Amino acid sequence: MQKRQFGRTKREVAVIGQGTWYGKDDDRKSAIATLRKGIELGMTHIDTAEMYLSGRAEEWVGEAILPVREEIFLVSKVLPQNASRKGTIEACEGSLSRLNTDRLDCYLLHWRGEYPLDDTIEAFRELQSNGKILSWGVSNFDVPDLREARRFSGDEGPACNQVLYHLQERAAEHEVIPWCEKHHCSFVAYSPFGHGDFPGPRTPKGRLLKEIADELHATPRQVALRFLLHWPFSFAIPKASDVDHVIENAGAGDLLLTAMQIDHIDKAF
Question: 3-state class of 133 per DSSP?
Fold first, then answer.
């Protein structure tokens, strides 16, 4: 599994991680088995949040990673309604307890809310100084929000911005991705296969992905996932609903697309 430096941190992190936004039909046993298979395959970048299943997802993650915690780059998120200075610290303590760990490798503001951003960042700094988090970032931020975060934090800046990004939703390329590149902020794609709208095999876009996949002895989903990683500072955190999916996702970790293949996909989408 390929690794890259995560933002301005010194950590080398797997380019493909594991998202944990579980639904009501997911169950603990299957989720833990899937996470552990992903970790075995090098997908040691684990993303979760206090919001997911009202904290139960963090408990499942904590159980899954317990034997290998030192190998994991662990990310969680504070809800905006909890993101006052005091509330952020309390929310982080709750996440640490559910995850059964003493620190997060990165802690994110899940999306922009009503609390002043400088209060949230001050809480992140306090948590960092106390060793509770090793870095901090944001999620679902547009460029004006990113600029504001940087005004409060200086060069320290957010380590990452986590954004919806897939082949049929590439709005981030207009402003967000260039901003992240300029300011050494990692770009993390969530829902990298979309929401039930992945191109079918009989559509022109689906046929293109299949043709490229056949050239690379890969699958269309692996090709799509790898395309999102052609930015040298990008990461992706697909959710794997079962072990077969996690094996397929991991297979994109070392896949190499040619410049021509990237150009064909870029034009098709």
Answer: strand
Q: Cα-atom radius of gyration of the chain, to the nearest Å?
A: 18
Q: Please, which residues bridge with residue 236 across strands?
A: 16, 189
CB atoms within 10 A of CB 147: 12
Per-residue pLDDT tens for 76-133? 999 999 999 999 999 999 999 999 999 999 999 999 999 999 999 999 999 999 999 9
Q: Mean per-residue pLDDT for 59-64?
A: 96
- The total of other beta-carbon atoms located within 10 Å of residue 195's CB is 10
The answer to whether residues 135 and 9 touch, using CB atoms and an 8 Å cutoff, is yes
Contact call for residues 198 and 221 (beta carbons, < 8 A): yes
Q: Which two tokens stand for residue 13?
A: 């992190």
What number of other Cβ atoms are within 10 A of residue 254's Cβ?
Answer: 12
